[in-house]
Amino acid sequence: MRSGFSVVEALVALVLMAVALAALTAAAAASVSHVRLARDRVCALELAFARLESLRAGPRTSDADEVDDTGTRFVRTWRSDDGRGGADRLHVEVTWPGGHVELESGAFP
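Above: the chain's sequence. Below: its structure in token form.
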């Protein structure tokens, strides 16, 4: 008898290693995608919150702008609805190619 591996055993081991490597690569790609989505969502929330704070403090006009941050283009729109004696309703929406976030709040005049 000869000790060692046969060619068939070596090929089976190679196929198993290839399958394991493909699974790890897919998991890494999914992780990168989720991290990018989380980064964009945090950036969009920061942009929306900043605009909401400026609407509370300053003139409450409706408008839109575009912001490039972290390699992503965000479109931010906002409006203020008159509260008719109560609190004004402030609405900010930020959209980007991967999703959108909306924030609403009230502010007294």
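The radius of gyration is 26 Å.
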